Amino acid sequence: MAESVYSVGIEMAVQTALALEQGGYRLFGFKGVQSSTPNGAPVVWLNTGTYSTETEIRWERQFEAYGSTSEIKPGVEISGRNSQPIKLGEKFTIISDLGIGEVSTGGPSGIITVINNRTKPFAVGVSQAQAGQRAAPLCAVQLYGLNSATFLPVEKVLLTFATQPFQVGTVIVQMFAPGLLIDMGAEQRRNVTFDINHGWSAAGNPPWAYKVNSGDLITPLLMTHSMDLAMQVEEVKVLP
């Protein structure tokens, strides 16, 4: 497996898969992010009805940065995103009141920088690619005029099965079904199981698999305020 590809294998019994299908359940996923700002919120990263008794979720170290004029409210999709491919060490600078941005080099090494060069706030964030697909958003942060934020996606994924109609990009701060937070650590592959009555588990109850209950706040689990990233926020000046 390539170094930039990670995966989680999900196993379930036939009875569980059939019950999920008949109940109209979908598989939702969220990803972890470190940020220089403490006001961020997770958004739905994965929403799929494609699963079976053996399912694999795969993602890559390929990123995008985005800007949007949407408000950041729980249960509301961050829509109208202008999203651009970006690498660690590059900058996404918003140059339009529509939230449109351009990518350039010269940012702090190893992180993604988003710069608001306008005098109005935007919803901004970073996205990460699921294998073979375009990057989907991980988080939403309110970035005020003439300010910057820095981001570093981390390899933590939160999975759940649910029937809610949330679209990719929807702001979620409270868990809406039982889930499992999986910390990849230094591994590129983790294996877990799901049972319609007993929920999520991993063999041996390892510390990298943390059960999340319906109703739990998930922002502290997925959005980490990093002082190291905060110290690397650039000063921004209005473009002439």
Commentary on this structure:
The protein is mainly β. It has three helices and 18 strands. The protein has helices spanning 14-22, 219-222, 227-230; strands at residues 5-11, 26-35, 41-42, 46-48, 54-68, 82-86, 91-94, 101-104, 112-116, 122-130, 135-137, 139-143, 148-162, 179-183, 189-195, 199-201, 209-212, 223-225. The strands form two sheets. Strands 1, 3, 5, 6, 10, 11, 12, 15 and 16 form a nine-stranded mixed beta sheet that branches. A hairpin with a 3-residue loop joins β15 and β16 (199-201). The longest helix has 9 residues, at 14-22. The radius of gyration is 18 Å and the shape is globular. The mean pLDDT is 94.
Describe how the helices and strands are arranged.
Blueprint: E1 5-11, H1 14-22, E2 26-35, E3 41-42, E4 46-48, E5 54-68, E6 82-86, E7 91-94, E8 101-104, E9 112-116, E10 122-130, E11 135-137, E12 139-143, E13 148-162, E14 179-183, E15 189-195, E16 199-201, E17 209-212, H2 219-222, E18 223-225, H3 227-230
Parallel strand pairs: 1-15, 2-18, 7-9
Antiparallel strand pairs: 1-5, 2-4, 2-13, 3-12, 5-6, 5-10, 7-8, 9-13, 10-11, 10-12, 13-14, 14-17, 15-16
